[in-house]
Write a structure and sequence with these properties.
The protein is an alpha/beta fold. 41% of the residues lie in helices and 18% in strands. It is built from nine helices and eight strands. The chain has an eight-stranded mixed sheet with strand order 1-2-4-3-5-6-7-8, sandwiched between helices. It is globular.
Length: 253
Amino acid sequence: MFYLLFIALSLIVGFIAFYQWQYFMIFAPIYYRKEPLCSSCTLIESVMEDGVVLEGALYEPPNPKATLLVFVGRSHDAVGLLNSLVKCYSDVRIVTWNYRGYGKSGGSADEAVLYSDALAVAEIVARNYGAFHVLGFSLGTTLAAYVASKMAVEKLFLIGAFDSIEALARKRYPWLPKRFLRYRFATIDFIGDVSAPTALFVSKDDTITFIENARKLKSAIRNLILYKEFSNISHKDLLFEPEVQQSIRRLLG
């Protein structure tokens, strides 16, 4: 009886540990500011319905030709990344927010609340700047697709995208029971409701979001205007791949 109790307790502890471990596999809250924001950049913030304050940043060039809302990856400080984005899209208004727990944003990241926050900040952008485009990288592609499925956007740019985190996990750990997975981030559930012109950029050598998962997502896109598969480019390098930047700049007008 003692051994059965020990085994049961061990399984419970193991499940709790695995459940918590998944949080750190999906989210990597970070505060990273390599340099001060550019002279045309401004810190902004917004209070969510539950009182949590999200930190964001705005780049406002003279006579911007478009507005671009950016959702970054799991290990990005969106504010800290803004200067690098400005170098890529210098004639475009860029708006980005840190997820809960990232940068100086309050709260703690969670799948459901990130969807709610993403839509809230998109509505703020629409109210303040009118029509806008959405760009998502890695984890941010799910949030970008979610926003584009719920409201009108000019174009949707997905970089390093995947069908779902659940599918990625099942591919990496095929022995893992589906019911034990804590997060889905199922981009494929949202992309079918997106009518906006969509561009997808992926790499055949991506070891984080596999090319098979990206191709599955591609097949579900309703209005695909550009699809590019790269070779010899890692997941993290896709965001700043020159050909990706050139393509997006062209599509921004």
